[in-house]
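Quick entry between incubations.
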Amino acid sequence: MDKLLEQIQKGTVWQFPGGVHPPQQKSLSNGANIARLPLPNKLVVALKQHIGANGKLLVEKGQRILKGQALTEPVANWSVPVHAPSSGIITEIAPKPSAHPSALPELSIVIEPDGKDEWCTLNPVSEPKSLSHQELIDIIHQAGISGMGGAGFPTYVKADTKQSIDFFIINAVECEPYITADDTLMREHAAEIIQGIELMQQLLNPTLCIVGIEDNKPEAIATMTKAAEHNNKIIVQTVPTVYPSGGEKQLIKLLTNREVPSMGIPADIGVLMHNTGTLYAVQQAVYEGKPLIERVVTVTGNTIHKPGNVWALLGTEIKHLLDCQGFSPVPQQRVVMGGPMMGFTLPTVRIGVIKTTNCILAPDHTELAEPGPEKACIRCSACADACPASLLPQQLQWFAKSKEYDKLQEHNLFDCIECGACAYVCPSEIPLVQYYRVAKAEIKEQQADKIKADRAKERFDARKERLDREQEERQNRHKRKPVAKSADEKQKVAEALARVKNKPDNGNEKSAVAAAIARAKAKKQQGEELEPDNSEVAKERALRKEQARKYKEQKSQTDESTETAPVDDKKSAVAAAIARAKAKKAAKAKKAAKALEDAEPTTSEAPQTDAPVDDRKAAVAAAIARAKAKKAAKALEEAEQTVSEEPQSDEPVDDKKAAVAAAIARAKAKKAAKALEDTETPSVPDNTDNSSSSIDADVPQSSDDKKKAAVAAAIARAKAKKLQKEGNDQS
Amino acid sequence: MKLTMASSPHNHSHKSVTRLMLIVIAACIPGLVAQVVFFGTGVLIQLVLALVAVTVFEAAIMLMRKRPVWPALSDGSAWLTAVLLALSIPPLAPWWVIIIGCLFSIVIVKQLYGGLGFNLFNPAMAAYVLLLVSFPVQMTSWLPVSDLLNNAIGFTDQLRLIFTDFTSIGYSLDQVRAGIDGVTMATPLDTIKTDVGHGLTVTESMQKNVFNEWAGLGWMWVNLGFLAGGLYLLKEKVINWHIPVSFIASLAVCSAIGYIAAPGTEPGTVFHLLSGATMMGAFFIATDPVSAATTNKGRLIYGALIGLLVYLIRTFGGFPDAVAFAVLLLNIAVPLIDYYTQPRTYGHGAVK
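Done. Structure below.
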């Protein structure tokens, strides 16, 4: 490190491989001072002018805004605001073609300047040394500054880097032909740029700041060296003129002999780089309080009458720039945003200047010849000799043409910086960069697809596994069911009897209905799982009872509230659903002895309730009531089915609708039940329970008790079964 | 206003394949002149024959492939093949030799593989080898330099020899080739090989009148002519230095080692460098971009191995010269060489 520092301070400049020497064409535009343009009659300010998220709109159509007023505020990570470039009225907020190779519409704010150019209140800081780190970062952030050299990376993110920085590099190379924006800015505002560098020094505390300038800008080198005299931690280094020495990675190699690791960032090797224009904007933001609302743009090319540099308000349409500088288009005119090597052609001149717009190039066909037809590659490898990243463009081209994506990645396609040096030298005029761009996009898409497919497969496998498991469980149940019955029957019957005897004591109508419903549900949810674990029966029964009590409580609560406001009761319905889901889980874990148990009381309840209704009238009434109740029960069941289906997918609360429906159904059922006579009421739960019961064999056992009751119960059950069948068919 | 869209970069170096090929053809001129001076105008007749033949064959096959003819012809690659082939074969070889050579190089070696850029082998050298193994007599019947000829033959006689096998007064090529002493003369490389095989030392062999003190009469100048042309190609950046330098260096080192090991039977470095097709091979044949290695490291290996093979075949092989064989053998190895000599990409495994 010390040795390296010594070498750098001695003025050593390293080399990167490759590079080309396209005609400079800089003298076209660097002769005059940066011009001020008349105010355009329209400004189209895109919300997104950088890498990262859009800011949040702060203004609306028709609103009057002042120059420098924030139009958006940063919200998510990497979002930087945009500001009003001049005072005026917002006439439109709509998507407009963007300053991007795709020209895809981006949400933009259209401002009609009022000509007053009236500033909002600015808060300049005269003593930035007194600012804390975060305050300074915030100023840079709120001023909307993002990298003005190329990619438009938010400056505040870079300035707030947590890695320790050895070398802070100022990219003043401007290696693209034609462009002289940084050159003239340095000539005219070297002192401000140095102040900007010093602000960055304050933030990053680097060992050394290196200003890299190509040797074709002697004036800029002189002014910058002079302006930096007082600060011995800033040195101005001259680098040879070779394209693309201004590429971030290439300049780092030139100035520090370090290489940014593949897929890494400069901070990984203790280097941070900013463009001169960015630093000027930082200085303006801090010392003047001015947000980033204008930048220097080179307007050049043989079709421009007065090529030169201008201060362009962000949002100024390219057309305005061309018109102001005089423009005589040729047939098949190209208008390039950026330089001739990496710039992109614009589909229309009705596009606003953005923070990264450094040049508008309108060439004729003699200076930049139109590309000829692509010819066969003769493998001369002139491209490899020109590649600044030591790639093998020729091989990449073959692989890209044959869509061999693995090979492309093996040959480090993603280390290509798309500088265009290879295509520039290619004697066959193969549009190499274009091939790489397409291949990169396709690989990225493929990778995204793969991730999606992998996730889908995961989901599918999980689902399949679950279905298989369930299937297996169901099969197990069918196999064991008879065994379970025979082993358990007697005990179950006895228990049922006991419960039947106790039943009248709880007499309460409401709770009886509720309990029945609860039981039905619980049973349903417990699934048809069945396991004949005799030894555990007692214990599990106790648990089951406790749970049933819980349900009962909950149910009665629900029912009470449904009585007053049946539809309103979402919360309790949801709670009930949760409870059901929980019950299901618990039930599953504790196996199905409970289910057996549950089935029994219901079957034995029927005779119990039917028993007193001995005479005919009562029986008829009961039948009518049952029919009604059945109807209600059916609705209830349907509702419940939807409810209970949800928990199975482990998302108990998810289905509000179903829960509400269930609540409604329950309310209806209750109403129906209420309408019935005391004695008939229990037939509602009876039906419900039977309909969901799968233990038919229990019936004859309990029927031993009372014949009449048994007959009635049998009828009810038959109906219920039918119902169940229907229900099953439906589901 | 309608704007034209284009993909970056929007500028171009204005290098073109045609220009590259024409420069290479131009760079052949010094070697060609030397051949004409020392071996007569026969080579010019062969050159015209070859140029016409490749043009016809290339056009015909492009028509058969239903592709536009002019773009293929105008890239100049076929003409360069013709020039190299004409310079490689004996100037007074019968006319059908060069025609067959052109047919094979253009139709089989180049176009059947897919045309320019897709051929695995150097077309001129593949054709040369085909001719050499098929017509060994015609392909080794080099004239001695004109000074050594019993009876000098003029342009018309050369023309007659090429087309009718006999001069106007009825001499066959063999009779014409006979030296003053009546013995048919071979090329210097051949002479040395034969003499060493007969137990003579190199020094004894080089007493013969086909040699000057360095190398074969005339051949030395032809090689120097190609060297000059090659330097011009380097200066024009049409070729990289890697292949010629490693080729020449490797041949020089091998022949020096050979000379140190067996001074009696080894002709030494200078002789090897200025004999046969050394310089033409180093600057014009091995550097054919299509069939040569494409990475810089690979080019060094490629050139060096060609140099080694040239030496080995010249010294131990059955043929007097070896450039064509060596180049073709290394053409096969190019994909392998390229694969293992990829340069280190920026940011990959660099020292911090």
